[in-house]
Structures are given as structure tokens and as C-alpha cells.
Amino acid sequence: QVQLVESGGGLVQAGDSLRLSCVALGRTDSSYGMGWFRQAPGKEREFVAAIAWNAGTIYYSESVKGRFTISRDGGKNTIYLQMNSLKPEDTAVYYCAANPWGLGSVRFAEYPYWGQGTQVTVSS
């Protein structure tokens, strides 16, 4: 079993930056494809960014492209989400997700493992 632990959320002002981290604990003999999703109050969970096991493939949603950067420490199945120029509409609970097939996917259904989420709040 794999446990994902997120950290780094918080309350910031518009234009500020935050960096989220996610580490995969437990059975990590595989190289995991990993991603970030977010869910705002009253809205469905949406894709933010994804990275393949070797960082060879990276995807971003249009709403964060150019502002957010996903990266990984592949040897430790740890990923990061550097969020710059934050906007109030980025306010959400951010979830880390992982799959054992090494895929960086934009699809919610391709991630069997999920973290508990970390709150990001951006004030105007």
C-alpha cells in the first residue's frame, strides 16, 4: 500500500507564491506517475498538473500553465508544485495522486492512490 502525504498549503495574498510537496510512503518499489488535482468548494475535482515517473512527460491545465511548475525527485517518489502569481480562483484543496504504471496522466481515474489534501487559500 502507498500513502501520499502533502504539505505546504496555507493562506497567501494574490500574487504570492507557495510550494506544495507530496511524498509517497510505504510500498514504493515502483516508480510512480504522479499528479496534482484540486477541488474548490461546490466544484468538482479538477486536474492541475502531472508528471511521469522519469519526468519525461509533464502536463498542465490551461488555467495554471505558465504560473505553476511541477517537478519531482524521482529517486524518492516525491513531487513538488511551485505555484507563482497565485489568484483567488486558485483557492482549493490540493490533492496529490499517484499511479504505479509511471504515467503522468490528466485523468482522475488513472490514479488509484490519493493524499488527504492540503488547503490553499488566496485572498484578494
Summarize the structure.
Helices cover 0% and strands 51% of the residues. The chain is mainly beta and 124 residues long.
Radius of gyration: 13 Å
Number of helices: 0
Major sheet details: 7 strands, mixed
Percent of residues in beta strands: over 45%
Outline the secondary-structure elements.
Elements (H helix, E strand, L loop, with lengths): L1 E6 L2 E4 L4 E9 L6 E7 L6 E6 L6 E3 L7 E6 L4 E6 L8 E8 L13 E2 L3 E6 L1
Parallel strand pairs: 2-11
Antiparallel strand pairs: 1-3, 3-8, 4-5, 4-9, 5-6, 7-8, 9-10, 9-11
Describe this protein's structure.
The chain is built from no helices and eleven strands. It has 124 residues and is mainly beta. Strands 2, 4, 5, 6, 9, 10 and 11 form a seven-stranded mixed sheet that branches. A hairpin with a 6-residue loop joins strand 5 and strand 6. The protein is globular and about 45 Å long. The mean pLDDT is 94.
Based on the model shown, name its key terms.
single chain, 124 residues, mainly beta, seven-stranded mixed beta sheet, four-stranded antiparallel beta sheet, 11 strands, 0% helix, globular
